[in-house]
Amino acid sequence: MDGRLAMHPHGIMFHHFHGGAHAPSQGSIDAQAMRDLIQHVGVERIISADEWLCRAESDSLEPQDVCLTFDDALRCQLDIAKPVLDELGLTGFWFVHTSMLEGEYSRLEVYRQFRETCFDSLIQFYSAFEEQARNAVGCQTVSNALDRLDIGTYLAEYPFYTPADRRFRFIRNQILGEERYTRIMDDMIGMFGQSIEALARDLWINAEDIRNLSDAGHVIGLHSHTHPVAIGELPPDRQKWEYKTNAQKLENIIGSAPRVMAHPCNSYTHATLDVLRELGIAFGFRANMVEGNWSPLECPREDHSNIIREMQACESPSSPATSLATSR
């Protein structure tokens, strides 16, 4: 890891894993890759989740301290990553959105499942998606907007994104917006004879799994109720509803009020932080290592993909870059 990471306590952020019933997908790693990553970081540096939270609340974290974090409560994390943690005697933070417990599925993961399972390649999906976007808002509108895109600087804080990944996210975030993006993706799913419910099957853990993780010493934290991709852009009262609902439902499962959270898609504002403080949240994680105001509610995290890239570069400095992007 670069020297910057050794100068501040931080989390390592995981999302997708493959192995067994879980097929490989963009950015996913298997159990052995996780073991290798942990050995690369140094098992001795990794602090158990409960101890990390205790040290964070007492302001006694050391610069070299690292913790492991898992976003979105994905079943592949439980099936592939948790056995590795058990093997190494480690615990982590599990940041859980709760709408999926009630059959209201986060479109972010459903859409990822769609593009990973219904297309021969990611590039094929990107091409089909861009065609639908041009049909929806007009070819010239899309072309004019793309003329403003600087591939080298857009989402530069996420170096694992390829140019194609950045182009897709620019169209999604800057040209379409969430409402039109959702409509396009739902229409595409219908065109392929798929359904949200079928694609969502077995993507997430359930309430019993969450309770078992907590009982085993892992720390359960907030990740909003419905996982909006831009929660920081919502009115403060809506943000408060998202996190308060999330907190109440998790407390009902684990028997205690969560004290830690992670910002979904790294989206938050000063108003978000005020909401979290009002709800009694003591500690929070952002989703990158970009330097700034690293407050107790904005602890940096390194995406596992960046560490994998570094490991690959050490093993074969001349090997070409590949896309290790997460679903974000």
In words, what does this structure look like?
With 328 residues, this protein is α/β, with parallel strands linked by helices. The protein folds into 2 domains: 3-105 and 204-315, TIM Barrel; 119-193, no CATH class. It is 46% helix and 9% strand. The protein contains 12 helices and 7 strands. A 5-stranded parallel β-sheet has the order 4-3-2-1-7, with helices on both faces. Helix 5 crosses helix 6 (139-146) and helix 6 packs antiparallel against helix 7. The chain starts with 9 loop residues before the first strand and ends in a 13-residue tail after the last helix. The model is unreliable at 1-5 and 319-323 (pLDDT under 50).
Largest sheet: 5 strands, parallel
Assembly classification: single chain
**Proportion of beta-strand residues:** 5-15%
In CATH, the homologous superfamily of the largest domain goes by the name Glycoside hydrolase/deacetylase
CATH topology of the largest domain: TIM Barrel
Radius of gyration, taken over Cα atoms and rounded to an integer in Å = 19 Å
The end-to-end distance, rounded to whole angstroms, is 22 Å
Widest beta sheet: strand line-up: 4-3-2-1-7
